[in-house]
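Give me the fold.
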Amino acid sequence: MVIDKEDSARLFFEANAFAVAGASHQRHKFGNQIFRVLTEQFATVYPLNPVAQTVEGVPAFKTLSNLPLVPESVCIVTPPAVTLAIVQEAMTLGVRSIWIQPGAMHCVVNDLAKSGGINLIADGRCVLIELRHLNFLNG
């Protein structure tokens, strides 16, 4: 089944729980900015960071497997080699949607996600811009 770009983004944002892989405690980094915006708009957002204890005062988790529940949507803001491992773990856990931010894409992820039936957004769109475009952001 082929989903158009807007429907794919809406499916991502309709999740009950999110994870942001690459969430950072450094406020200028995109992982932190995405984490902050998602936590302002949605109830359950988990930061994934292999070294940080917290991100914006929220306990950080090393991997998706360490989370108390499997998020329906995962946003990835990591180096490409790390992205591949996160996508593989997400597929194993049954994550429904993955949004890979520009610069985080690994060359085999598209085929891998398609074979697993995941709603994959990895076409260069930025989650922050799409939130505003789809009117999920207030203001």
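The CA atoms of residues 51 and 116 lie 29 Å apart.
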